[in-house]
From TrEMBL:
Cofactor(s) recorded in Swiss-Prot or TrEMBL: [4Fe-4S] cluster
Oligomer and partners: NDH-1 is composed of 14 different subunits. Subunits NuoA, H, J, K, L, M, N constitute the membrane sector of the complex.
Sequence positions that bind [4Fe-4S] cluster 2: 107, 145, 148, 151
Protein name listed in UniProt: NADH-quinone oxidoreductase subunit I
HAMAP family: NDH1_NuoI
Disordered: region residues: 1-43, 226-251
EC id: 7.1.1.-
Low complexity: compositionally biased ranges: 233-251
Domain 4Fe-4S ferredoxin-type positions: 87-117, 136-165
InterPro entries linked to this entry: 4Fe4S_Fe-S-bd, 4Fe4S_Fe_S_CS, NADH_quinone_OxRdtase_chainI
Domain of life: Bacteria
Organism expressing this protein natively: Flavimobilis rhizosphaerae
Length: 251
């Protein structure tokens, strides 16, 4: 370039970080450079390699089998397993649920729906449960239930408990809403199907205190007069007991 001449304008340098030298020095790797296969196995190790792959399989061959052949073999659950709910009965066949809705209020998943009814609305002094009220509608939605057991803790009459039944799958959503008939405990031998009057001379307190031990002859006669074809009559007639007296004994 002749002296005094001006330099032609230079194109702007790119402002990329790549063009600048990094202030951080490159890290140096310690030790010898890594090779692809530093220790090549010998011919015997190579020959045994496929067998070594089965080491875990061979080690488990002679251990006890833990596979459960469900549903062909059903393994019992632990005694306190939380399974399907059950609505229980008193020994004379009356239902324990009084339709108070406490279980529905306690449920964190809003899975229970209860509608109470008045025993006074039933004809001729009949009762579904002791006392004033009974559970007219009772539903549990097993699509919501998380089997926490809070509902059974809330129940004041121990009407609601949980069984060990865990087979709760179904093909429809509607079918997973269990109605009262699905949840009600079956009549045990000697129980008299309701509705029928309470044991003569008793209040609901005698039922809550466990003083009712079976149907009385008066209850059997009442049902025989109105429902002579009731399937529970014969067994209940053989299992009649005396009504408790005011002192906790029997009349
Ligand atoms: S077990 Fe828990 S989630 Fe299920 S109905 Fe009872 S309170 Fe609700
Ligand atoms: S199951 Fe128990 S808590 Fe629920 S409505 Fe019946 S009596 Fe009340």
């Amino acid at each position: 370039m002749p002296p005094g001449a001006r330099r032609p304008p230079q194109p702007p340098r790119p402002r990329s970080s790549r063009s600048r030298p990094s202030p951080i020095p490159p890290r140096r790797r310690k030790g010898p450079p890594v090779t692809e296969n530093p220790k090549k196995p010998g011919p015997i190790a190579e020959m045994l390699a496929p067998v070594a792959g089965f080491g875990v399989t061979f080690a488990n061959l002679f251990r006890p089998v833990v596979t459960e052949q469900y549903p062909f073999e059903k393994v019992p659950t632990k005694p306190r397993y939380h399974g399907r709910h059950q609505l229980n009965r008193y020994p004379d066949g009356l239902e324990k649920c009084i339709g108070c809705e406490l279980c529905a209020w306690a449920c964190p998943a809003d899975a229970i729906y209860v509608e109470g009814g008045d025993n006074a609305d039933l004809p001729e002094g009949a009762h579904v449960s002791p006392g004033e009220r009974y559970g007219r509608v009772y539903q549990i939605n097993y699509l919501r239930c998380i089997f926490c057991g809070l509902c059974i803790e809330a129940c004041p009459t121990r009407a609601l408990t949980m069984t060990n039944d865990y087979e709760l799958a179904g093909p429809t959503r509607e079918g997973m809403i269990f109605e009262k008939d699905d949840l009600l405990a079956p009549l045990r031998e000697g129980m008299l199907a309701g509705p029928h009057p309470m044991v003569e001379g008793t209040e609901d307190l005698e039922y809550y205190r466990g003083e009712i031990t079976g149907p009385t002859q008066a209850q059997v006669d009442w049902v025989r007069e109105r429902r002579p074809d009731d399937a529970s009559l014969d067994a209940a007639a053989k299992a009649t007991v005396a009504a408790p007296d005011a002192n906790g004994g029997t009349r």
